[in-house]
């Protein structure tokens, strides 16, 4: 439902910003703001034909905003879906006595046919490409004297290290929605290891039986394992607990190999899940795990008893609250196979790409470097085996090498590329919204003309009591960083519109984009904007700079300009 709206053109009209009221504004607050703007824009107050025409347009716009927000049903639709929601065909049959929740359900019903059409276009492709690299010759090369003996004194030690690709795996899957409750999933994979390879193909049919569960039937075939038949079931037992069961039969020349896996999961609290899993078949095991996922961290603890794998594992991941969504992680896993310690990091390098690197140090596995790139729904994985031994040099180069390489690529390639992409995106937004912005600019200029007389009276009243006088005000993109001198500032003068909003020596702006205020428009589409204001109160100069969506209330003592400055 939300996705359907995201693909539509986004509305620029913010009714709350136009009326300069909070999103939680009461009916009295809406009425007071509406009356004030009506007095300002009423067509009968202007004799000039052009001003009268402009006033009529603005008056109708204000009236439209008020009519939507004063009606609880229309306001509920607008708050959830914006102006687009009000234009959906079919609202005329909605009963006016319905609650906001019922109206939301009605909206979803009216969009259902559209969603079904979109289903036919969704395939949700997912893929993985894994390339295993053997680079042990970098650290585990034979001693020079041994090479001289075996090579007959030919000096073979001076050659380049031998690095080879010893395994590859490619898998791909697509989903084909048949109806709103039935989905077909086609997947396949190809693998090769040291010259031996194979592949398989699977077809699954999934049906959503109710809001509480779904079932899936799977058929598969391959050149290594033979035909496969499986059945999977998911069921919500309670609002905090669910279970899954998967049974399958693998047919081969050795006979039929059955398998069964069941899992029970429960929400222990808001951020914590507990899992119990039992597996019977070729690799029987019992597993229990606890997973805690918060905004800033992710923690996992698991214990497994099984044949042949029995282990205990603990991992922790810290999430930085930055634009790149950087994460650092570490884990330790110990069992009959030995002990493995892993540490690494991942970061977002573009809108749809995440790059990660993990160093694995274990006994008897040795040292490996794993590099993973997620690009949308595609995953590229490169495990690089460096050495079978625990060599400090291998651990050092596996840790420092990727970090230095990433910082160099980030500075020389990624940042310039992302900056160029952002500039192209902003330019596209400007081009696509050029006509709309021109219209908004024309409306803003007309509003400023209509405000002149009211502003003159407000200034006279404020001057008589040493009140609030807006001396200068600018809105838009300001360039203050010396490193960005090449960028051009995009600002507009909003002194008159802000003075017009002054009432009883106070100016109050709500938490909304200021581009929607009367007399304003967006001078820099897609860019970060601010409001800079110089004002006088009780004969003293004040100055303030605030963000586009920040609430503002003046005058304030903290805005006062000292005499020394």
Mean pLDDT comes to 83
Strand count: 23
Q: From the alpha-carbon coordinates, what is the Rg to the nearest angstrom?
A: 33 Å
Main β-sheet description: 17 strands, mixed, barrel
Look at the helices and sheets and give the structural class: alpha+beta
Number of helices: 10
The gross shape turns out to be: elongated
Beta fraction of the residues? 35-45%
Residue runs with pLDDT of under 50 for 5 or more positions: 1-12, 89-97, 149-156
- Report the span from N to C terminus: 55 Å
Report the helical percentage.
25-40%
Describe the model.
It is found in: Mitochondrion outer membrane. Required for mitochondrial inner membrane organization. Seems to function through its association with the MICOS complex and the mitochondrial outer membrane sorting assembly machinery (SAM) complex. Residues 14-82 form the J domain. With 565 residues, the chain is an alpha+beta fold. Among the domains are: 8-87, DnaJ domain (Helix Hairpins), CATH 1.10.287; 433-564, no CATH class. Helix content is 30%, strand content 39%. It has a 17-stranded mixed barrel. Strands 19-18-21-22 form a 4-stranded antiparallel β-sheet. A two-stranded antiparallel ribbon has the order 20-23. Strand 7 and strand 8 form a beta hairpin. The relative contact order is 0.08. Mean pLDDT is 83; it is low at 1-12, 89-97 and 149-156.
């Amino acid at each position: 439902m939300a996705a359907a709206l995201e693909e539509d053109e986004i509305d620029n009209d913010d009714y709350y910003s136009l009326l300069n009221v909070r999103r939680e504004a009461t009916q009295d607050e809406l009425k007071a703001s509406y009356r004030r703007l009506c007095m300002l824009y009423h067509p009968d107050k202007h004799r000039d034909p052009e001003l009268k025409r402009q006033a009529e347009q603005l008056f109708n716009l204000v009236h439209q905003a008020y009519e939507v927000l004063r009606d609880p049903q229309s306001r509920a639709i607008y708050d959830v879906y914006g102006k687009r929601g009000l234009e959906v065909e079919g609202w005329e049959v909605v009963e006016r006595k319905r609650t906001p929740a019922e109206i939301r359900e009605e909206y979803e019903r009216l969009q259902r046919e559209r969603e079904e059409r979109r289903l036919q276009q969704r395939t949700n492709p997912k893929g993985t490409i894994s390339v295993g690299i053997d680079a042990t010759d970098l650290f585990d090369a034979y001693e020079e004297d041994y090479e001289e003996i075996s090579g007959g004194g030919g000096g073979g030690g001076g050659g380049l290290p031998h690095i080879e690709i010893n395994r590859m795996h490619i898998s791909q899957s697509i989903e084909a929605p048949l109806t709103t409750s039935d989905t077909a999933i086609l997947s396949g994979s190809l693998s090769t290891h040291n010259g031996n390879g194979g592949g398989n193909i699977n077809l699954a049919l999934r049906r959503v039986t109710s809001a509480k569960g779904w079932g899936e039937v799977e058929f598969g075939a391959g050149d290594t394992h033979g035909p496969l038949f499986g059945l999977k079931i998911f069921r919500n037992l309670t609002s905090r607990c669910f279970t899954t069961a998967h049974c399958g039969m693998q047919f081969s020349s050795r006979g039929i190999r059955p398998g069964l896996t069941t899992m029970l999961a429960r929400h222990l609290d808001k951020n914590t899940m507990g899992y119990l899993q039992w597996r019977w078949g070729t690799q029987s095991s019992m597993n229990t795990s606890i997973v805690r996922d918060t905004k800033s961290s992710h923690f996992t603890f698991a214990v497994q008893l099984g044949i042949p794998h029995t282990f205990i594992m603990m991992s922790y991941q810290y999430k930085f609250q930055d634009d790149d969504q950087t994460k650092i992680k570490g884990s330790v896993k110990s069992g009959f196979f030995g002990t493995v310690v892993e540490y690494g990091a991942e970061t977002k390098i573009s809108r749809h790409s995440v790059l990660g690197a993990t160093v694995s140090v274990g006994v008897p596995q040795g040292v490996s470097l794993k590099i993973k790139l997620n690009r949308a729904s595609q995953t590229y994985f490169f495990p690089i085996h460096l050495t079978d031994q625990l060599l400090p040099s291998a651990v050092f180069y596996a840790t420092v090498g990727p970090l230095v390489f990433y910082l160099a690529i980030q500075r020389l390639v990624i940042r310039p590329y992302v900056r160029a992409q952002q500039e192209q995106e902003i330019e596209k937004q400007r081009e696509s919204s050029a006509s709309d912005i021109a219209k908004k600019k024309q409306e803003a200029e007309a509003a400023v003309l209509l405000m002149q007389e009211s502003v003159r009276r407000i200034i006279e009243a404020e001057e008589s009591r040493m009140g609030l006088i807006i001396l200068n005000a600018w809105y838009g993109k300001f360039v203050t960083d010396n490193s960005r001198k090449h960028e051009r500032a995009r600002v507009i003068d909003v002194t008159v519109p802000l003075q017009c909003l002054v009432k009883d020596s106070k100016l109050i702006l709500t938490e909304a984009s200021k581009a929607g205020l009367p007399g304003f428009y967006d001078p820099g589409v897609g860019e970060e904007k601010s409001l800079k204001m110089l004002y006088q109160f009780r004969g003293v100069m004040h100055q303030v700079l605030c963000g586009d969506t920040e609430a503002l209330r003046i005058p304030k003592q903290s805005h006062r300009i000292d005499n020394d400055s």
